[in-house]
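[scheduler] slot 2 assigned
[scheduler] job type: sequence-to-structure, two independent chains
[scheduler] chain ordering preserved from manifest
[runner] begin chain α
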Amino acid sequence: MTSSLPQTASSQLKGLALPPLENGDRLTRPEFERRYNAMPNVRKAELIEGVVYMASPLRFTPHAEPHGRLITWLGVYQAATPDVQMGIDPTMRLDIDNEPQPDGVLLISQESGGRSTLSDDGYLEGATELVVEVAASSVAIDLGDKKRAYRRSGVQEYIVWQVYDQKIDWFQLQDGNYVSLVPNEQGVIHSHVFPGLWLNVEAMLQGDMRSVLAVLQTGIDSPEHQTFVQQLEDLRLKAMSAGDRPQ
């Protein structure tokens, strides 16, 4: 049976029948996506452990500025590391209860053995190798339910910048649990998943990006990084060769 309403009126009724997203809603991921897609004016909403969180307007000093520093650092590393990709605020489909939108991600391309994939509609599916979050008012979420969701989904490294506490936590997944990575004697943390990704923690906290990038460049110039780049290239070429073989 077809509706006698004009198409525009029918569409309006359908829009009214779909409840808007609200903070604290408990939804499955498919229902979260339905409501999110029906609200194009909403810039950022996340589903964490089945609960909806909608971001408040972001202030410059406690969020936008540190976010920019982290993305600059990741972007320089990505530019020097073929077969590694970097993204800002991507939607990540982790499982039926979790669809976060982290501040930044670094991932190995699928062709070079990366864990995450791109869906047909362009979203990340599965856990990327590294996730970064800037936590101003969201510390409880980022170090609570979101951290548990990332751990359970297999995010290998997780960085949380606690802005008001002037602290950067870097966690690595070991035997199913997150273990804190500590700076060496020079105050630098080395990534285990991305060789050459080195962070001068104090310089980052103080906004000394010249020092941050100088330390990063030392990591990029290290033999460990050069070996990593070669390994990724070998994996990509191997995958391409396998794809060319007749079935």
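[runner] end chain α
[runner] begin chain β
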Amino acid sequence: MTDSSTQIPQVNPPMLSPMALAVRRFRKHTMAMVGLGILVLLIFYVSFAGMLLRGYCVPLKQELRGEAWANCNDTGSKLLPPSSEHLFGTDVIGRDILARTVYGGQISVLIGISAAIVEVLLGAVIGSLAAYYGGWIDNILMRITEAMLTIPSLFLLIIGARFFGNSLPSVYILGRELTGSVLAIVLIIGVTSWMYLARIVRANILSLREQDFISAARALGASDRRIIFVHLLPNTLAPLIVSATLGVAAAIISEAYVSFLGLGVQGATATWGNMLDGAYRYLETAPWLWFFPGTLILLTVLGINFVGDGLRDALDPRSGRRM
């Protein structure tokens, strides 16, 4: 028999921090990892494939690279099916579909990220102010939120893109020109999609503002701004991160809606959405016009939704058990 005095004491494994637990839960989420892999491949596609794109533009009688090649109108090569020269085929005016999906993807992703940032900023600020101050401020902000929820966001997006798209100046971001229609779509999507997030932030902060650490911050003389932005909002990061992730997918879909209707991004600026505009006329005769941009939209939205579901499960405080 083994002497009890010689038994090796059992050592408990070290406790993991909340962030380490969240990372472990996310890595064990199969669909989240699949979605992350899809997004990584798509980011490489829209970021680095443009460096390799080049072709001979017959009207200009020269070889072009990158975005210039994507906008080359070669009517002698219109509606060509996928081939070794044009891997994704060409559109109705002879532009290379592969090049346009690369540069259109950059604009679509930029629209999604920018609109999600506007959504998160508005939702976080309005929800936190309503919950922290309460009273008449809470009543006014929540009535505004409820009024915004009754307005169809797609209707506002169509009207705003139609009337304000040409009135805003173009800007340059990361070397790309964003026309006024792009800016209008970003602002309208962000301004019409913050309401649900504001309600979630408000509910979380209503429970947090009565906690002891908030009372201690007030006793130490912390200002309201410091309490809101340093103590309260960082403790609501989980819904903010999940909402931002899913907001990117929703913004890409919304841009595709209005662009498909011919009211979205205008001019030579390509997006996955406006590449679908007019493609319905060639559903059977030239399916490559809608198949490639449509597939990229599908993969992007699926990947973002999978990652969003994984983040929601990983950041759920009720999943704080040791794994």
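[runner] end chain β
[qc] chain β: The chain has 13 helices and four strands.
[scheduler] slot 2 released
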